[in-house]
Sequence to fold (252 residues):
Amino acid sequence: MAMSLKAKLADRSRLLNFQVCVIPSAVATQAMAAAGTDCLIFDQEHGPVDFASLHAMIASTQGTACAPLVRIPEIHEVHVKKALDAGAEGVCFPLARTPKDVERCVSAMRYPPSGKRGWGPFVAHSRWGTQMFEYAAGPAAETVCMILLETVDAVKNIDEICAVEGVHIFVIAPFDLSTELGISGQFEHPKMKEAVSRLESAVLRAGIPLGGVALTRDVAQSLISRGYRMTGGLDVLWLKSAVAQSCDWSKP
Fold:
């Protein structure tokens, strides 16, 4: 059995890769999983990924070392339950603002008495290769809680947020954060750099793995040099970039 993403994150010597998938395609998912990425995050917050496509995309990672995660539309127990019961290995939570938000995220992923997840792994147990009544005590304990840091409130509350038990990785999301700061896309703006620095310092001080968006090798190496453990990008942006480069090949 492939090493779980949770175990990879617990190994501080490992550097990891993720890709956000907004393209609702099991074929594209299978190709990216086979390419060697550690984690695919299927985007139901901003991408046109319906539930049937989601299940097919999760299933298409079978037989690879790639962990399927789902970015849900909002922090809500129903979305968490559906994602995990479809076989996802974890959940990516958007727009966390307070420690209470993060506590709710963690609780939604755990079965009672330590959480509020409803029991029903009728599909999930097959994805994990286990018996249905073995899922709760086995694979369910390997699921990953990923929290996006992308709000001004999260910057203000980051020390208290990092104190919440049960988060396996924080990812700084620059698009939403820069937009909330009123400087959308201006990643080198002093306000943005100050906010990111505050988030980085708190997460690294707490000893929790940190992830970030890197659309070039140079950016990835810069993040890694600052202590990031996981870097990656978005499928549609990689596709667009690759096609644009291909178009240039035919030009004199």
Summary: The longest helix spans residues 190-206. Residues 5-246 form a domain with the TIM Barrel fold (CATH 3.20.20.60). The radius of gyration is 18 Å.
